[in-house]
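[Discussion] Sanity-checking designs against the backbone

I'm trying to build intuition for which residues belong where. Below is a structure token string of 513 positions. I'd appreciate it if someone posts a full sequence so I can compare it with mine line by line.
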């Protein structure tokens, strides 16, 4: 398994600079005269890339500003709005917050409301009771909490995991974070101690992982997902990928698995998951399970969500007790969609106590995750139950979101598959489709002339002509010689999206045929 002793011997120096009032620099000032310039920055930060908020989304924001400031812009541009399909940001695109969540959050933010007579008519009884329970444990949401998170909330998370998986969970192995991304970053920082360290990541992958590896000056060890097999991992190729990395001097520390998948929308089968666990156990590799889309499931009968913890614990005793695992969850996705509150957690499974102490040290340095996010996690893992006053409304809202996402996903995939030069696997889960582009040679030539990969060239043209913002597949990684893009299916006006897209795609093929 992971060499924990070597991990513990690793020390990191964190420098904190508190600047005085910053002088202003003119654009014409020579670089040599500046107190700080880009050449003085950490090169790992300059190297890191994050396509989801990269060049195309930046251009989209510039176009949005133009539309807002110039009344004539819509006539000049040919569209009147930006459709952001580049990032899984549900509420930005109209997904309504769950009423129960927001009502409890309201009372925890302004506790004086609870004791006002009007509260009894404004808020259901279970909302008031839940807010009181949380405030009794938290005190004020403006105060620091325990660095691992509020104890009673971690207890609720443990109960949620036990109910989901049918196996015990310990709140002392659960760390709350400012979204799952912060948890991933913490584990990467803890684990990676040398430039020859590497982590196996799926291709296509969520760019958080390549960015985190770049920031820690570590290596990405890529294993491919098979598009022809509904984006299942190429299990036969894992041994070859590992052997090649080791032959190049890479010490593989962990393997990342994203299920349900981002950007491809796959959901791993138990058979695939067991094979991955056996591979990790055989080679003493820490398993990192990104499970933030676990409630975004569109084929629950044929491809349900199964957690890696449930799989590990169900296997032979030596694997169940020996395979190290860190699993991540978040309130940003699913039916919750509370991205801006920054709430999440990770659970440590089969991780030695002395290593857990170092995880706690890192959490302590960061003080605590946002209390609003912690409350969001509590509400997600412990929602209203049958018989509670808020249950019927809660269930109807969750069901409506689930059904709407499934319908939009199917509509969009079917629309893509009707167009020449596009093929698209239907999503089994998550919030994304990853269609494959088959573009004519002239498009490749034009992209090369523009200095862009052809998928990025296509996506930039789409934005400039329609206002639709998607992300090129090159930002996620893809099989050499193939080209894709990632789109969310969160936009509520999917028919409007499809109409704009179809018109552009048809015109694009005509232009470059």
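Best answer:
Here's mine. Compare freely.
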């Amino acid at each position: 398994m992971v060499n924990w002793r070597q991990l513990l011997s690793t020390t990191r120096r964190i420098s904190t600079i508190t600047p005085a009032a910053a002088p202003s620099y003119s654009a014409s000032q020579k670089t040599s005269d500046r107190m700080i310039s880009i050449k003085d920055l950490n090169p790992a930060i300059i190297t890191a890339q994050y396509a989801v908020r990269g060049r195309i989304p930046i251009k989209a924001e510039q176009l949005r500003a133009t539309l807002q400031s110039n009344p004539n812009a819509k006539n000049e541009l040919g569209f009147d709005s930006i459709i952001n399909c580049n990032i899984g940001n549900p509420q930005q695109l109209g997904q309504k917050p769950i009423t129960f969540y927001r009502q409890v959050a309201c009372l925890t933010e302004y506790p004086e409301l609870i004791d006002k007579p009007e509260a009894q008519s404004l808020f259901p009884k279970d909302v008031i009771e839940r807010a009181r329970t949380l405030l009794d444990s938290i005190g004020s949401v403006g105060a620091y909490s325990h660095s691992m998170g509020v104890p009673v909330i971690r207890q609720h998370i443990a109960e949620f995991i036990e109910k989901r998986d049918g196996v015990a969970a310990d709140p002392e192995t659960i760390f709350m974070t400012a979204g799952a991304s912060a948890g991933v970053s913490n584990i990467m920082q803890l684990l990676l101690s040398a430039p020859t360290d590497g982590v196996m990541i799926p291709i296509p992958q969520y760019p958080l992982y390549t960015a985190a590896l770049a920031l820690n000056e570590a290596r990405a060890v890529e294993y491919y997902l098979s598009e022809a097999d509904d984006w299942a991992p190429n299990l036969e190729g894992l041994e070859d990928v590992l052997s090649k990395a080791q032959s190049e001097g890479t010490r593989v520390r962990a393997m990342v698995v994203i299920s349900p998948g981002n950007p491809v929308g796959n959901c791993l089968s138990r058979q695939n998951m067991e094979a991955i666990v056996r591979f990790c156990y055989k080679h003493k590799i820490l398993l990192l399970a990104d499970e933030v889309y676990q409630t975004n499931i569109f084929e629950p009968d044929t491809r349900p969500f199964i957690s890696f913890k449930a799989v590990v614990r169900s296997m032979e005793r030596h694997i169940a007790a020996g395979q190290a695992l860190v699993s991540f969850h978040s309130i940003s996705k699913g039916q919750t969609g509370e991205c801006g509150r920054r709430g999440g957690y990770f659970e440590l499974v089969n991780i030695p106590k002395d290593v857990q102490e170092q995880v706690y040290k890192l959490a302590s340095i960061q003080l605590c995750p946002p209390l609003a996010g912690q409350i969001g996690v509590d509400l997600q893992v412990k929602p209203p139950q049958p018989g509670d006053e808020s249950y019927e409304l809660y269930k109807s809202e969750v069901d409506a979101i689930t059904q709407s996402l499934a319908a939009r996903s199917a509509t969009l995939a079917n629309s893509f598959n009707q167009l020449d030069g596009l093929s698209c696997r239907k999503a089994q889960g998550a919030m994304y489709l990853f269609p494959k582009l088959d573009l004519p040679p002239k498009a490749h030539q034009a992209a090369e002339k523009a200095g862009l990969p052809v998928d990025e060239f296509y996506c930039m043209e789409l934005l400039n002509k329609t206002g639709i913002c998607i992300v090129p597949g090159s930002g996620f990684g893809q099989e050499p010689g193939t080209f894709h893009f990632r789109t969310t299916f969160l936009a509520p006006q999917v028919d409007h999206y499809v109409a704009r897209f179809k018109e552009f795609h048809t015109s694009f093929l005509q232009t470059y045929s």
